[in-house]
Amino acid sequence: MNDRSLKTKEIIERKMKESLEAVYVEVIDESWKHAGHAAATGGGYYILRVASKKFEGVSLVNRNRMVFDILKEEMKEDIHGFIIKAMTPEEFKSA
C-alpha cells in the first residue's frame, strides 16, 4: 500500500465514523489487483463495509448515495473503484 492509498483509507474511515456515526468501518485497499490496467492510473480501488444506525429504514441505493455524498471529494481523484456494503448494526450482527 502506498502513502496515497493509506491516506485515502484513513480519510474514508474517519468520514464514515464522523458523518454516519458508524459503529463498524472496514476499508480494504484492493488497488494492487488493478496494477497495470489501463484505467489504473488514477485513484485506488476499495471495498467499504460500514454499519450505521443512519441506514435504518433506508434503501440500499440510498445508503450508497449517502456514502458517495460523504466521499464526493475523494471520488474525484483518490477513489477510482469502490464496492460498498452499507448495513444497519442489526444487519452487521447477522452477517
Number of domains: 1
Assembly of the depicted chains: single chain
Q: What is the fourth-level CATH superfamily?
A: BolA-like
Order of strands in the sheet with most strands: 1-2-3
Class from secondary-structure proportions: alpha+beta
Largest sheet: 3 strands, mixed
What features would you describe in this structure?
This protein has 95 residues and is α+β, with helices and mostly antiparallel strands. It has one domain: GMP Synthetase, Chain A, domain 3 (2-Layer Sandwich). It is 43% helix and 24% strand. The protein has helices at residues 3-20, 60-70, 72-77, 89-94, and strands at residues 24-29, 44-51, 79-87. The chain has a 3-stranded mixed sheet with strand order 1-2-3. It is globular and about 35 Å long. The N and C termini lie far apart (27 Å). The mean pLDDT is 88.
What topology does this entry show?
Blueprint: H1 3-20, E1 24-29, E2 44-51, H2 60-70, H3 72-77, E3 79-87, H4 89-94
Parallel strand pairs: 2-3
Antiparallel strand pairs: 1-2
